[in-house]
Design a protein that fits this description.
Chain lengths: 59, 934
């Protein structure tokens, strides 16, 4: 019997890694549930001022 | 729209197996109806209950009714149940009373639902280490001892001090001396259980010191106390050098033991020992503890419940050949939970994990996703220009230097301007929504954003235009950041005036912009992978497994690349077996075509439609493909110092492993690190040599404990959990001696043996070692790739590594669509990092290949055949073969081939008749901007 393949993925964690994988998957044709413990996504990166080595703002 | 956000949610249990999991999700109530909330902030304003704000690292208070920060997604408020007065004793309810849309709903309950998904990706991240338990640093007692995350909030424009750098003790005075203590909560088994290196703290401390100096000017002294300065990533060493040379940040090799407060003040006194043995007492106004990463207990708990195996440091256990797979089939992992890492690596791994999840579910692609539909486009033909101008503060990047309100006032008075506003961060989601509303409300038909470079956010703003019914090309940006405030940061008035000029020019051009329709082309659903090493093979397999055929072009006669020289990864996995396995899979895969002794001779085309000519020995073969993956690899350089090549006892890298008989006879082996790296010629770190030499040193000691092994280094960079290897080496008796670039070791011949002399900073004297073997960790350099760079028009950096579209946000993409990179061609990295990056490149490539048709830039040349005299000059200057001459009614006329046109404009500027114009960059549009500048 062929293994079932549901066309959706659950990403646990709404930080930068979670968001990037969610975007890649959604762009590739999969439905994504992005699960985040807090009230908004963004993770630790949203608390940073600027990021190395380009000094771009984290937001 | 194919992403459903489940906030305030946690996973309770997972059943099922890869391909079909049933996940029980518990969602805590927000107590606010998301469909009604307009994020006006009234609830928070009226809420009487204040609590310590975790988002601002506990530096300020927030209300029980809150939103984490102004740019949060989703931008909806929430009520903190545990701290709300209504839930405690039924009183208050002010939020409900004052909410203008009646969105507050105290009756909401926790819900549980079971979702059926095919794969799971764990990306729960880290939490910063809490140094309260370190009583010697007095973090809990002294107000001016803070953590790095608190410092980030202080520096941030959205933070509690509005980006004003002040001391924590009085929140008013600016500090004049700040010290950073590295490795707080990392590399430390004595006081906490984290023996690993947190990988990012050295770099973030350097960044914080640089930014602090930019805020405060030269008046601020910054000192970073470290054991090893770990700047091992791409462009990190240059950043470190800039901190030292340009900003004067001091770096001290010392670990401070105790901090005490200077009596009568809030200043801190620190005693430390220098290399010369002197004890120095220095007073600082502020100390920043560079706290490490740790995995939160609730994440450990979740991992245990799901059966995911963890390492000693509580990170997810993964193998080198499958760096993003957890021990549970169908559950993938990425980011800090996989191991301490920075943002670009987290992004790469995230794409990699997405790739694996997609490979698993290749057959069900597209079954549950929907396509986005934009509102129909307004026809603005014939309308007078009504320009909306949005001036960004970009945190403090712009607002801290130029007078943004003055720019706004100025813009209001310019011709064609209908509406002007100022934003803190124009790129945030909430501003996008607002912009779309304003465009519709004010009936705007052109938009100018005065902010950063179009390279960061132009596509985002263009999408906002589409969402509001405007053609995305009715948009113009004025770069008042990179081209203004960032380079004129010391001349604020001039920067403001220049910003006004730039805005005026942008508005003049914007007023003349036309709607341009997108062009869609078919996608050839196959890939060309250039390079048959581990990275190339991984990428090809990833794509083939998803149903996209791949052709591998390998220059040499064999597959395997640089990995053929490596015996084991740092996790102990057999690399030769891995390589053999890859080669077998690749050669046997029906959808992978391997071409060896093959080189790319020429290429043309664009995303979705490339054609590459490959030379195989003396024949050529043309391949059509939709995407290109560059995996051309690298190699260990040949040193031109330390007698390399002049004595049989001098080897490099894995030579010793390949010549075990040399080792058997050796009584003394010396490893020299950073040979040809981190110097003027190659100002970068080759990243894996510290780990590589230490692995070899451990192996020598384990086989022959009496052999003397020395490692001469500048900084030991065993990042992440590799730190355990450094400790093991020391325990086995490997002797580490630090040297500096100014005082390099000297190697001379002494009969059959060698003499290595090095200045030991701890002993403060020269040490002479008689060695049988000297192994050099030479710099890793990219393979020759200038020809390829020219053929595909892709950039390389100063060290010849390929240059990605954006160092942080797009680490495997090239700026040109449809071309991706991975492996050593990008930067030195370990085998497992190459595999992860290769899968990330495959994931990104799949976002192109999974589409039926793809939009290409319509910004191409346009020929007015009436004016054209058929001179052919344009065809001579075009580097892309995108304009040709053809016969029309007996006369020669130029004709453009839009599909190949890159929009560079050479033809238009060369045409003596001005018969060629560039869409979106028409002569009139450019002239308007130029005239406005005057």
């Amino acid at each position: 019997m062929p293994k079932e393949q549901v066309g959706s993925v659950m990403v646990i964690g709404g930080g930068i890694a979670g968001m990037q994988s969610a975007l890649d998957l959604a762009d590739a044709g999969y439905y994504v549930y992005l699960v985040e413990k807090g009230s908004s996504i963004g993770g630790v990166m949203s608390q940073l001022d600027k990021t190395f080595p380009t000094n771009d703002c984290a937001m | 729209m194919n992403i459903e956000l489940k906030t305030l949610s946690e996973v309770k249990q997972v059943q099922g197996e890869a391909g079909s999991f049933q996940v029980e999700l518990v969602q805590r109530p927000r107590y606010i109806d998301e469909s009604k909330c307009i994020a006006c902030g009234e609830c928070a304003e009226k809420c009487p209950k204040k609590i310590v704000d975790p988002y601002n690292a506990g530096l300020v208070k927030r209300k029980a009714a809150y939103v984490e920060y102004a740019q949060a997604v989703p931008l909806k408020y929430a009520i903190d149940h545990d701290n709300c007065i209504y839930f405690k004793n039924g009183k208050c309810g002010a939020c409900k009373k004052f909410c203008p849309t009646d969105a507050v709903d105290f009756e909401q309950k926790e819900t549980t639902e079971t979702l059926n998904v095919g794969s799971i990706i764990m990306a729960p991240g880290f939490r910063p280490f809490d140094p309260s338990r370190f009583d010697n640093y007095q973090y809990s007692d002294f107000p001016n001892v803070i953590t790095s995350i608190e410092f980030e909030r202080i520096l941030a424009a959205t933070g509690p001090t509005g980006g004003h750098l002040v001391k924590m003790s009085d929140q008013q005075e600016e500090p004049k001396k700040i010290a950073w203590f590295q490795c707080v909560g990392s590399r430390d088994l004595n006081k906490c259980d984290h023996a690993y290196c947190s990988s990012v703290c050295c770099m973030y401390a350097v960044k914080e010191a640089i930014i602090a100096k930019e805020h405060a000017g030269d008046d601020l002294d910054c000192a970073i106390f470290n054991m090893d300065l770990r700047s091992y990533g791409k462009d990190f060493e240059k950043y470190y050098n800039t901190a030292k040379d340009k900003y004067g940040v001091r770096f001290l090799k010392s670990r401070v033991h105790t901090v005490s407060q200077v009596q009568g003040t809030d200043d801190l006194e620190v005693s430390y020992v220098t290399d010369e043995g002197e004890i120095i007492k220095e007073t600082f106004n502020q100390i920043v503890l560079s706290v490490g990463m740790e995995i939160a207990p609730e994440v450990v708990d979740l991992a245990n419940r799901l059966g995911i195996e963890l390492t000693d440091g509580n990170f997810c256990k993964t193998t080198s050949s499958s760096p993003v797979e957890s021990s549970v089939s169908g559950i993938y992992v990425c980011g800090a939970f996989q191991g301490p890492k920075d943002i670009p690596e987290s992004i790469m791994e995230a794409s990699s994990a997405a790739n694996c999840a997609a490979m698993q579910l290749a057959q069900s692609r597209g079954t549950l996703s929907q396509e986005k539909r934009f509102p129909s486009e307004l026809d603005i033909e014939g309308q007078e220009a009504r320009v909306g101008v949005f001036v960004c503060n970009c945190g403090v990047n712009i607002g801290g230097i130029a007078d943004v309100p003055a720019i706004v006032e100025y813009a209001k008075g310019l011709p064609n301007v209908t509406y002007v506003q100022e934003n803190l961060f124009t790129c945030s989601q909430d501003t996008q929504d607002q912009m779309a509303e304003i465009i519709k409300e004010k009936d705007l038909n052109r938009v100018v954003v005065a902010a950063c470079t179009p390279r960061t956010h132009e596509p985002l703003f263009q999408e906002t235009l589409r969402n509001s019914g405007l053609n995305p090309y009715l948009f113009e940006m004025a770069n008042i950041r990179n081209q203004c405030t960032w380079v004129h940061s010391t001349e604020k008035d001039k920067a403001t005036e220049k910003s006004k000029d730039l805005v005026r020019m942008a508005i003049a051009r914007a007023s003349l912009l036309d709607s341009i329709s997108d062009v869609a082309v078919d996608v050839n659903k196959s890939a060309l992978v250039i390079g048959g090493g581990v990275a190339g093979m991984s990428a090809a397999l990833s794509l083939a497994e998803q149903g996209f055929p791949a052709t591998i072009v390998e220059k040499t006669a064999e597959l395997g690349g640089a990995a053929r020289d490596v015996s084991a990864t740092w996790k102990g996995q057999d690399v030769q077996a891995m390589v053999t396995d890859f080669i077998q899979k690749v050669e046997q895969h029906p959808d992978i075509d391997v071409l060896t002794n093959a080189e790319v001779a020429d290429a043309s085309g664009f995303v979705g439609n490339f054609e590459t000519t490959i030379g195989i020995e003396d024949k050529t073969k043309a391949v059509q493909h939709g995407v290109t993956i560059i995996a051309t690899g690298g190699q260990a350089s040949e040193p031109d110092e330390y007698l390399y090549g002049q004595h049989p006892g001098i080897t490099r890298w894995h030579d010793l492993e390949h010549n075990p008989e040399k080792l058997e006879k050796a009584d003394s082996v010396v490893f020299i690190q950073c040979v040809g790296s981190r110097d003027d010629q190659r100002p970068y770190c080759s990243r894996i040599c510290c780990t590589g030499s230490i692995l070899q040193a451990i192996s020598i000691k384990e086989n022959s404990p009496d052999t003397n092994v020395f490692i001469l280094y500048r900084d030991i960079r065993t990042y992440g959990e590799r730190e355990a290897l450094y400790k093991k080496a020391r325990q086995l008796g490997v002797i580490f001696i630090r040297y500096s670039l100014e005082n390099k070791p000297v190697v001379v011949e002494a009969g059959d043996a060698l003499e290595v002399t090095v200045f030991d900073p701890i002993l403060q004297r020269k040490v002479r070692i008689t060695a049988d073997l000297v192994n050099l960790a030479s710099a890793i350099v990219p393979n020759e790739n200038s020809k390829l760079a020219e053929i595909y028009k892709i950039p390389v950096n100063a060290e010849n590594f390929f240059m990605e579209a954006h160092a942080k946000l797009r680490p495997v993409d090239f700026a040109s669509d449809g071309i991706f990179m991975c492996g050593l061609a990008h930067y030195p990295k370990s085998t497992e990092e190459s595999i992860a990056q290769a899968m990330a490149a495959a994931s990104r490539a799949a976002t192109v290949l999974s589409q039926e048709s793809i939009k290409v830039s319509p910004l191409v040349s346009q020929v007015d055949t009436d004016k054209c005299i058929g001179c052919g000059l344009c065809t001579e200057v075009c580097a892309f073969g995108a304009i040709v001459l053809e016969e029309v009614d007996g006369k020669k006329k130029a004709k453009n081939i839009s599909a190949s046109c890159k929009g560079c404009g050479l033809c238009a500027s060369s045409c003596p008749q001005h018969a060629i114009d560039m869409l979106h960059f028409r002569h009139q549009q450019i002239l308007a901007a130029v005239c406005a500048a005057a």
